[in-house]
Amino acid sequence: MLLVNLSKENKLRYASVLAKEVDCTYSHTVKIINMLKDSGLVEFTKKGRLKTIALTNTGKELASNLSKAMSLFQKVDR
Fold it and tell me: Looking at domain 2-72, which of 1.10.10.10, 3.30.420.40, 1.10.3720.10, 3.40.1190.10 is its CATH number?
């Protein structure tokens, strides 16, 4: 869900905001984001004390495919 939420709006996001959006604790969200970074799906930009998260091109592609798959499952579930 983090990848899909990052792809919804084309802007830089903060871990605390993402944690609230996916209803997850901040520490768990940061752990997942670090795993996504290690996989090359997200990148960090640091300005002063603020650290923002953005999808890489590979992350955007994967998020798009996940979003499509989720839509298909929702249609089948109805």
Answer: 1.10.10.10
